[in-house]
Design goal:
By secondary structure, the protein is an alpha+beta fold. It has helices at about 55-105, 110-160, 165-190, 260-265, and strands at about 5-10, 20-30, 40-45, 205, 210-215, 225-230, 240-245, 250, 255-260, 270-275, 280, 285-290, 290-295, 300-305, 310-315, 335-340, 345-350, 355-365, 370-380, 385-390, 390-395, 400-410, 415-425, 430-435, 440-445, 450-455, 470. It is globular.
Length: about 475
């Protein structure tokens, strides 16, 4: 006698997976063998691409480890704040003591001076200790970002090839960790560098490791043209807003807006705006400022802006601007918009400059050029430029892993010089690299990935190096 039984079994997940589950169909056939012996033969028919439960368990375990490290760093931040308050109070006391001694010179004696000298050296030692602690925390932050980057890549791959809903549960945990890491770094930066918005420095001295959020909203590394970031002059109640626009081609077709970082990572925009055909742009070097998209116009060739509040469009033609010269790795990068602490800028070449970069200041109300400067920078030899405090910085490739900020031009002094600040690339090519003055970060759109960098500045009273050459404005 042959009987056939078909049944389904639900494979429950481990507790670490938060109740996730997977179905598989099993077929069991009960057969009567020779000699009257019955036996049971079971075959499992699983999908051709089973869900990688072990990988997801590993991801969640790693998340717990990262979260523990982050909690420890948050505790250190509180200690740093207490210590800095105490040190500031001691410095104030020493300053008062010194002022009293200066006024009453007749009462000065060697014992008093020696006592003050000892106290000053003690405070100096405490400050050096705190500086080392800061450096240690910075190293930990970079390590955590690298760990998160690897996990984000794993989640992106799993989301493209498996059930997205299963992956989203774990991704939300990583979003929470990323946001808390951002907050911890923000507090760290405020303690170490409370001068966001200030230009009281002589320039960039260091760039962090790449901080990778994830693959773009299309989940496609083929969308190499595009950009992302924050509004450099956000309107009220939009301070936390992020934007993204990307495509496999060079045209600017649409742009997405997200209320905050969490919704950016979850790919849930509150506005998805499609550009009208007659206002469509080209290239990738666009920015969002004051809820307005500044971009390169297709027809007529020139500058364009579209305000999302008023739904109004405006364009400008720049006489003499050249269509010939683009950046080294991508075509159609003719006009490069930038924003910094001093306002709105655009960089390009002209027919007369023969490929050398021109930087121009834009009046945001009239959308006209206020002033422009000629540099010695040959555009086809570089990858991108950005502005910080009225200074143009240029970036080029050094090797398969590293980029270099190698050139700066100060529009205030009309001086330029060679520098060398190395930083890592996440992927090979990038189409958009812009500085945002609201958080002093660089935002890079890197082969479809959202990547950003922290910047450190030299907060001294005067420049540490002489310029190599001087240029006059056009």
């Amino acid at each position: 006698m042959i009987g056939t039984l078909y049944f389904f079994a639900l494979l429950s997940s481990t507790p670490a997976l938060g109740g996730l589950s997977q179905w598989s169909e099993l077929s069991a056939e009960i057969m009567a063998g020779s000699g009257g012996a019955d036996f049971c033969s079971c075959d499992a028919f699983l999908p051709s691409s089973t869900f990688p439960l072990k990988d997801l368990v590993m991801v969640e375990q790693t998340a717990e480890q990262i979260y523990h490290k982050l909690e420890m760093e948050m505790g250190k931040m509180e200690d740093y704040e207490i210590k800095m308050t105490q040190y500031a109070e001691r410095i104030i006391e020493l300053t008062t003591d010194i002022e009293i001694l200066e006024k009453k010179t007749d009462t000065n004696n060697d014992a008093t001076l020696e006592d003050l000298e000892v106290k000053i050296k003690q405070v100096e030692a405490l400050i050096k200790e705190l500086q080392l602690s800061f450096k240690s925390s910075t190293t930990v932050f970079e390590s955590l970002h690298q760990e998160i980057t690897l996990i984000v890549e794993t989640l992106d791959q799993m989301e493209k090839t498996h059930d997205r809903n299963l992956v989203l549960l774990t991704r939300r945990e990583y979003i929470k960790i990323q946001m808390e890491l951002e907050e911890c770094e923000r507090r760290h930066q405020e303690l170490f560098n409370p001068n966001i918005g200030s230009c009281a420095h002589t320039g960039i001295i260091k760039v962090s490791k790449p901080i990778v959020s994830q693959l773009n909203a299309h989940l496609s590394s083929g969308y190499i043209y595009g950009g992302w970031g924050k509004d450099s002059k956000p309107i009220r109640d939009r301070e936390s807003m992020y934007w993204f626009s990307g495509d496999s081609g060079a045209y600017i077709n649409n742009i997405r807006f997200y209320t905050n970082y969490k919704n950016l990572v979850l790919r849930t925009p509150f506005l998805h705006h499609t550009m009208p055909n007659q206002w469509r742009g080209i290239g990738s070097n666009y920015i969002v400022r004051d809820n307005t998209l500044y971009y390169q116009n297709y027809i007529p060739f020139g500058l364009a802006k579209y305000n999302f509040t008023s739904a109004t469009y405006e364009s400008r033609v720049i006489p003499g601007a050249s269509k010939t010269f683009s950046y080294a790795k991508l075509s159609y990068q003719i006009f490069d918009f930038a924003a910094d602490e001093t306002g709105l800028w655009v960089a390009y070449t002209t027919d007369e400059s023969n490929g050398k970069m021109v930087v121009a200041k834009i009046n945001e109300e009239s959308f006209g050029i206020v002033e422009q400067w000629q540099t010695s920078l040959y555009k086809p030899s570089i990858n991108n430029v950005f502005m910080v405090c009225g200074v143009l910085y240029a970036v080029r490739t050094v090797d398969i892993q590293n980029e270099e900020i190698f050139f700066m031009f100060d529009t205030k002094t009309r001086q330029e010089k060679q520098i060398s600040i190395l930083f890592e690339r996440f992927q090979d090519k990038y189409s958009n690299l812009d500085y945002n003055p609201t958080d002093q970060k660089l935002y890079m759109y890197n082969d479809g990935y959202y990547v950003k960098y922290h910047l450190w500045f030299n907060h001294t009273t005067e420049a540490t190096a002489k310029p190599l050459m001087v240029q006059n404005p056009i």
